[in-house]
Amino acid sequence: MSTTTAPTPATGRTPSATTRVLGLARANLTLLMRNKLTAGYALVLPLLPLALLLGDRGNEALVSTGLSSALLMAFLFPVFYNLLSATVTRRDELVLKRMRTGEVSDLELLASLALPGAGIAAVMMTIAVPVALALGAPMPANVVVYAVLVLLGIVMFSAFGFWTAAWTRNAEAAQMTSFPVIFLAILGSIAPVLPDRAARVVEFTPGAAMESLVGIGWLGVDGDQALSFGETWAASAEPTLVMVAWAVLALVLAQRSMRWEPRH
Amino acid sequence: MTNTHHDLAVEVSGLRRSYGSGKDAFEAVRGLDLTVERGTITALLGTNGAGKTSTLEVIEGLAPATGGEVRVLGMDPVADRRRVRRRTGVLLQRSGFAADLTVTETLRMWASTVSSPRSVPESLEMLDLTHRADVKVSGLSGGEQRRLDLACTLMGHPELVFLDEPSTGLDPESRRRVWRLVEDLRDGGATVLLTTHYLEEAERLSDRISIMDAGRIVREGTPAEIVEGHPSHIEFQNVTTPLPDLPGARVDVGHTRTVIAAPELQPTLTALLTWAEAQRVTLPGLVARTATLESVFLSIADSGHAPSEPAVADSDTDHDLEVAR
Asked: Is B152 in Cβ contact with A7 (below 8 Å)?
């Protein structure tokens, strides 16, 4: 064992926020990949629903359902569930508390936890574009709407992951505590079978907003109405606002409830 | 920023910290004053629940104080978090690692967050972990995890180091290695504030000791100052002959052993042995020792949650007897 050297004044190289976040995110990605089940869910489930497109080539209803389900899987598994279980595990292992004794800021710590899942979801939903096209989907009507949708979904479900982690006792309990957010996410897909008044309410759920945005951004239709490229901007405003509102709500909830160490 | 002394690494005054609220509220730190001079090793001693970790967490900036003021290197550990952290190293009471990362991956991760970090090989070497570099944290022994934790603490060449029970759970060999490391830190100009259960560790390592009880510092000074004024003890198995009058000393006859607390060991012991010689009394199992940090600590711990002054009472008796200071 060598001896320690004299302390150097704090004039040396200080890593940038990006260096710190990427350094920590790299470790979190290693951990994600080392957990076979989480990695499998994150890498396989998001593309699986695109198999629906094989059923009836060119059927727009199937394209809509397939893409919406793919997005849902990407938001729920690599983003939401992975982040929920990673945050709870790191918290219980006292890693979060330990890291907070160092130079990294709280926001950087959270970003590094969210980044691997967010990155996987973004990559998966990018790969989904050529895959869907190859399976007979039409060219996206407005790719910006689709990209914004992916981005907002990632932010919203990351925030929901942190919020759920706050009241999840341990990693096993996440199987149960993840239910409210999963339910909220899939609520949109059952809108068609609900009575009118209920369906109107459900439209304001993130799941329904996602489905509208897939219709507008990819297929260029709003309900039964075909849209020109110019019209897709206006049509996407309301569901985008719904998504933003949910993302803000989730961020506020997460910010208010964040816990850094296990309850005593 | 008034009243900040440049020779003080840590300055705490009137610190309070409470947990919970209403009926369940519990005040763990109750008006604590503490100063740590630069370039020294200061030990915070106390029984379980005395409030050591609660205090340290506030000084480290991990938890807000309920009241009082804390300055670390002249700064506020919460408001100036970023600047303080660049110059401090923290070892928490319990290590926090991701079980599935290897030792090298863990150190590399830490290094990415630290200003001017030691290299990973140097960190491994410093805590004798080179041969364990590719082992997952879950496969390390408790002592190895503690050393890995210390490697993270020291990675940024901190000028002020907080160590919460650094050697708990270590084998004697590792403990000595940690002691050497702590001494090297001080000799290199760094300041160390540590907590410990091991009185031997505090006595051996520290320049100054602060003893905590029930959320306050009840005694503070160099190891020599701490024991100063505390009674020496003479012990032997009970004898049938009545003992002589021993001025200033307090005699306590227990079930099997007699304990004499004496402000001055030598005259009392001389008087006792002279009497024994004259009376032809044998004192079986005779032990005589001056006050040690341990006896002082135990008297504080046993005095219950004492008022601000430490009781000088012997641990075996209820009645206090004034002992000269």
From this structure: no
